[in-house]
Amino acid sequence: MGDDSMPLVKAIDMAKKYGDFIALHPLNVEVHAGEFFGVFGPNGAGKSTFIKLLTGQLRASKGEIEVLGVNARTDPQKLKANIGIVPESESPPSFLTPAEFLEFVARLRGVDDIAGKVEYWLDWFGMEEKRDTMCKDLSKGQRQKVMLATAFIHKPKLLFLDEPFANLDPIYQRKCREWLLQHVKDGGTIFLCSHVLEMAERMCNRMAIINHGKVLAAGTIKGLKIDPSETLEDVFIRLVGHSIEDAERLEDEGVTNSEEE
Ligand code: ADP
User: Are the beta carbons of 189 and 181 closer than 8 angstroms?
Assistant: First the structure.
């Protein structure tokens, strides 16, 4: 609210340990209104952990995290009311139908014209025939569509997406990509995690590459390339391949590892 220059997402020294295992080393991140920000890295890099800390689904081991002006560590409930989250591995409730679950979420989010919007989004995702099927009997891709529809239906000003297209066919990948790009044009802000680099090329205006819980580099795609002939895949392999050393170089790009304790 108020000051447009305030970042919507701000984490300082955010870190996560699972027991003795450091899943995320202390890092800093800022995401501003109107950005389409992506975190990319191989499997196990720490992407889901990153997004779960910012959305209050996991409690950080240390650091300060403010999202839409709310403290994500102490006030996760308040935070969740104002953002949209499409988690990687979760499914809609098995014993609700897509229509019921969408209606439930829309009501919770205070959406107007609920019946109309539920039908609109079922139709948009090609799910009319499955509107009354229990979610447990849907395919993975259909379940992912239901999860995406619950995020799209209330057009949250800040949307977190974890591997959002993993189970979608190319037609719906494109459709969703276009919707997300339009959402950003309309003033929305998106934070996305994925290992699919193509998404960075097609959607993100700024990104961070992480591995073993450390930010290896951050910036615009252009800024990450040593020269224009380098592809993003080259960048990824160069950085992830021999990790770590050059993280310091990019400190002023808004995402950095913090000083270790
Ligand atoms: P990504 O999303 O990039 O694949 P994750 O954030 O899911 O990576 O996991 C990062 C690391 O933390 C992995 O090595 C994973 O095994 C570990 N990890 C994730 N969740 C837990 C947990 N609940 N307990 C212990 N280790 C975990």
Answer: no
Within 8 A by CB and 6+ apart from 44, the residues are: none
Interacting residues of 77 by C-beta distance below 8 A, sequence separation 6+: 56
48 lines ligand 1 (CB under 6 A): yes
Three-state DSSP class for 108? helix
pLDDT band at 242 (very low <50, low <70, confident <90, very high): low
- CA of residue 229 to ligand 1 center, whole Å: 34
User: How far, in Å, is the centroid of ligand 1 from the Cα of 42?
Assistant: 12
Q: What is the DSSP string of 221-241?
A: HHHH-SSTT--HHHHHHHHHH
Q: What is the pLDDT of residues 12-38, one digit of tens each?
A: 999 999 999 999 999 999 999 999 999
- Report the alpha-carbon distance of residue 19 to residue 31 in Å, rounded: 29
What residue spans define the domains of the chain? 91-155
* pTM, 2 dp: 0.89
C-alpha distances out from residue 50 to 29, 46, 201, Å = 10, 6, 21
Rounded CA-CA distance 143/149 in Å is 10
Q: Count the neighbouring beta carbons within 10 Å of the beta carbon of residue 250.
A: 19
